[in-house]
């Protein structure tokens, strides 16, 4: 038998037959590469297969009340929507509709909402009348409701066991920063939640964990990152049928509006910093100040992505995964040109001691800042400094967004910082514009004061 013959015999769509063959739910053979079926096996399957919600037995039942009366009670809107090839009846819990097959037969379908909140559309096999289709719709809707509210017991698993599943099956596959998840789990979350079952972790327990973390001096933003990780893990646990609810959704994160670090390197600080940086660090610092590239983007930069003739850098290994092009100015051009003369590696910035790319420049950067007397400066602040200087030179925010590689201008706005001097200059502009008028008003006040002083307070007749 062919696929078409089997679909007609079983009263299903041919795509369903193909799906069953892929899932090995129906016996088949291949003849010259084509899918074929043995008639005896298909007949046995049809005689013994278990229809969804036991349709064969269920369709033998009858309405307790006549269908017209049932329609009057529950049918919504117009009695039926009709077209040449189909009819539809809308009830409060779903709908029944018909379609004509190529052979001209009427086939009944039902549509309802499953326990996952998604619409389900299914053909009602063996249904010959609308009454039978409505009966199937009733039972399917009831089963969906019961399964949603019966609260079946999810699979038991401890937080420590699920952490391993999360790291191996999601974090390492989908996140570049999976090592941050690994550290947060092993250093903080597993020691506290590790022995608890996922279903035993409550919002109160999470609040207690956060309170203990804050007592140790941890910043609120750090606890927000940990709870964000915890929230993602529980969302996956719901998808993987380990829990039904996410307790982290009931815990409000701390506001971080006041935690934005506004640190911009001044021109004087830049001079002192460059005087104290090591020879291998100075080109990296200057590149950051003149391109706005992130630290890892600079350290992982290869010559393949540098085009000195066109004066552009193709940034590929980005935080957002979105490639971008950064123009090269004169300062960066001279740095790269000098580096290329002596380069023997595919990487632009190489550790002179190992001949390999730098893994970290944190200590050397902090030591340079300490020697230069610069406090509270992170390497990432060089990116902020680039953004601020670009705005001061008249760069529009959309161009700056493209240079920084942001998806949204809202993110770019966080990088724009206005110095106190620029604020003072802006206020003085208003003063200069209205200076004459203000002066005139001040002189009028003085004259009025003199005039009032010449008027006697009392008159004597």
Quick summary of this structure?
The chain is α+β, with helices and mostly antiparallel strands.
SS-based class: alpha+beta
| CATH architecture classification of the largest domain | Orthogonal Bundle
Give me the number of helical elements: 20
Distance between the termini: 132 Å
Number of strands: 10
Order of helices and strands: HHEEHHHEEEEEHHHHHHHHEEEHHHHHHH
> Tell me, what's the shape?
elongated
CATH topology of the largest domain: hpI Integrase, Chain A
- Please indicate the count of domains: 4
What is the overall pLDDT average?
81
Instruction: Estimate the strand proportion.
Output: 5-15%
Identify the CATH homologous superfamily of the largest domain.
Intergrase catalytic core
The main sheet comes to: 5 strands, antiparallel
Give the strand order, joined by hyphens, for the main sheet: 3-4-5-6-7
Helix content: 40-55%
């Amino acid at each position: 038998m062919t696929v078409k013959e089997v679909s007609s015999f079983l009263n299903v769509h041919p795509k369903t037959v193909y799906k069953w063959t892929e899932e090995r739910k129906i016996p088949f053979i291949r003849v010259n590469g084509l899918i074929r079926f043995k008639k005896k096996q298909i007949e046995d399957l049809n005689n013994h297969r278990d229809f969804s919600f036991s349709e064969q037995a269920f369709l033998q039942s009858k309405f307790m009340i006549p269908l017209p009366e049932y329609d009057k009670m529950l049918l919504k809107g117009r009695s039926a929507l009709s077209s040449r090839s189909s009819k539809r009846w809308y009830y409060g819990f779903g709908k029944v509709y018909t379609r004509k097959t190529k052979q001209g037969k009427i086939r009944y379908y039902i549509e309802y909402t499953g326990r996952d909140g998604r619409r389900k559309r299914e053909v009602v096999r063996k249904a010959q009348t609308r009454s039978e289709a409505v009966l199937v719709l009733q039972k399917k809707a009831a089963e969906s409701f019961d399964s949603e509210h019966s609260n079946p017991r999810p699979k038991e698993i401890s937080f420590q066991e699920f952490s391993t599943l999360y790291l191996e099956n999601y974090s390492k596959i989908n996140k570049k920063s999976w090592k941050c998840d690994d550290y947060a789990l092993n250093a903080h979350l597993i020691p506290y939640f590790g022995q608890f079952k996922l279903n035993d972790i409550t919002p109160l327990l999470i609040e207690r964990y956060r309170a203990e973390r804050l007592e140790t001096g941890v910043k609120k933003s750090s606890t927000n990152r940990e709870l964000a990780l915890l929230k993602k893990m529980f969302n996956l646990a719901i998808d993987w049928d380990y829990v039904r609810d996410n307790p982290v959704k009931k815990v409000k994160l701390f506001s971080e509006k006041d935690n934005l670090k506004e640190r911009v390197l001044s021109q004087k600080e830049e001079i002192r910093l460059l005087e104290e940086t090591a020879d291998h660090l100075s080109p990296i610092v200057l590149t950051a100040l003149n391109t706005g590239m992130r630290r890892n983007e600079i350290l992982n930069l290869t010559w393949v992505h540098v085009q000195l003739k066109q004066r552009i850098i193709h940034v590929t290994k980005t935080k957002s995964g979105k490639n971008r092009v950064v123009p090269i100015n004169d300062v960066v051009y001279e740095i790269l040109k000098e580096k290329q003369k002596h380069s023997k590696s595919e990487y632009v910035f190489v550790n002179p001691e190992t001949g390999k790319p730098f893994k970290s420049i944190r200590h050397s950067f902090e030591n340079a800042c300490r020697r230069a007397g610069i406090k509270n400066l992170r390497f990432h602040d060089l990116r902020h400094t680039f953004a601020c200087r670009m705005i001061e030179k008249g760069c529009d925010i959309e161009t700056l967004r493209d240079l920084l590689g942001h998806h949204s201008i809202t993110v770019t706005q966080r990088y724009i910082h206005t110095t106190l001097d620029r604020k003072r200059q802006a206020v003085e502009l208003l003063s200069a514009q209205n200076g004459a008028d203000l002066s005139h008003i001040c002189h009028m006040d003085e004259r009025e004061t003199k005039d009032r002083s010449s008027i006697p307070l009392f008159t004597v007749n």
